[in-house]
Structure formats: C-alpha cells, structure tokens
Amino acid sequence: MIRKIAVSFMALVLSVGMMPLCSLADETVVDNKAEAAYSTSKIDMIDRDYEVVKVRLAPNGGKGKSITFEVDMVEEVVPFYLEACPFTRGGYTFTGWNTKANGKGISYKTGEEVPITKDTTLYAQWKKNCNYKIKIRAPKKISVKKPEFTVKATVKSGNKAVKRKKVILIFGGFKYSAKTNSKGVAKLKVKKAAYNKRMTGKKYTYYVICGNKYRKAIMVVK
C-alpha cells in the first residue's frame, strides 16, 4: 500500500529549524545563489510516497478479534511500540508476543519496540495456569550439627501425580531444585551452608514452588 503525503515546503523549512526568508536580509553575508533560489522557487508543495505496512496483533487462542495497525514507512525500519495485551484467555496467563504462533519465532514483551520493515503479525503467547496442589514433608526442627536435611514435596493436579515437573525450594537465601518422580514426589536436599549457628533458636520460613503455585512452611533451627 502506498500513501501519498503532501508537506508544505515552508512548513518543512521552519520545522527543521532553518532561517525564515525574511531574516536573509538581516544577514551580513548572503549567498546570492541561495537567495535567488528562495525568491524564484515556485515549489509550494513536496510530494513524497511512503509505503504503508500492516502490523497485526493476533489473539492466538485468546478472546477477541485480531487488531491491525497501519504503519507509515518513513524510514527503512520503523519502531512499533507494544502496549498492554488487549486479549484475555480463561485459565491462561499472557506471557508476551512472538512472530510465530507456536512461539518459535522472535519474542517480544509488553513495553518493547518491534522493528518493522514489512507486514508483520505478532501472536499472543499464553501459559496455562496450573492447578497444582503441593504437600510438604520435612522436619519441623533441624540442627546446625546436621550436614543436610531433605524436604519432600508431593505435587498433584486433582488426584493425579504431576510427573517430571521442576520443583524449587528457597531456604536461607539459597535455592535448590529437583524434578518430581513417577509418584509426583521431588526430594530437595538442603545443605548446611543454608543454615548456621547464628540462626540457632530462630524460626525461618521457606518456600516450595512448582509452576505458579507455592507453599510456605516454618522450620526451627536448634
């Protein structure tokens, strides 16, 4: 698509900060050729042809219709700014945009600018919200004399064990991870570096995270 834009020559001169014509007479040195060009020019309008490309935002499974924007290609590359996602999807969380529906293209986040050179479609990307339930089995008290202790986290979705899912444990500023086994159980071993004598007699909250769900528990260091 080609869009023709007419730009006033005088407006163009003033917009780029050039000297108004009337000021030429006040200058000590005047380029006669330039003066002649200004005085004899019969150009009142400049016509420029800009290509117009389309940027389409596709819901990609979300609720709503695709939205198309027209972009004037005033340069070889024009930035397109991504604002908040206009689509929603029940049971899913929006994670960003991608040049391919399957998410294997170039990814962009809200607030980023996309370099546009041609017609482009950006597909909304979604992550399914998990309904995991996390059960923690761990000692309520630990001793600074023990080299390590284990936290067992059982992850289920309804009544089904969640297999081969990454589980994260955060304790004392340290992070540990393990994957659930065939029974949905992840064994996370906390090493002594995460606790010391200065923590003796105190209660500490730790977190077990799986997907976008988490459980927290309290442990006493003795």
Topology:
Layout: E1 2-8, H1 9-15, H2 32-40, E2 45-58, E3 67-72, E4 78-81, E5 92-98, E6 107-108, E7 113-116, E8 120-128, E9 132-137, E10 141-142, E11 148-157, E12 160-161, E13 166-171, E14 174-179, E15 185-191, E16 203-210, E17 213-221
Parallel strand pairs: 2-8, 10-17
Antiparallel strand pairs: 1-2, 2-3, 4-7, 5-6, 5-8, 9-11, 11-12, 11-15, 13-14, 13-16, 16-17
Outline the structure in words.
The structure is a single chain. This protein is mainly beta and 222 residues long. It has two domains: 50-128; 132-221, Sandwich (Immunoglobulin-like). It contains two helices and 17 strands. It has helices at residues 9-15, 32-40, and strands spanning 2-8, 45-58, 67-72, 78-81, 92-98, 107-108, 113-116, 120-128, 132-137, 141-142, 148-157, 160-161, 166-171, 174-179, 185-191, 203-210, 213-221. Strands 1, 2, 3, 5, 6 and 8 form a six-stranded mixed sheet that branches. A five-stranded mixed sheet has the order 10-17-16-13-14, with no helix packed on it. Strands 9, 11, 12 and 15 form a four-stranded antiparallel sheet that branches. A hairpin with an 8-residue loop joins strand 2 (45-58) and strand 3 (67-72).
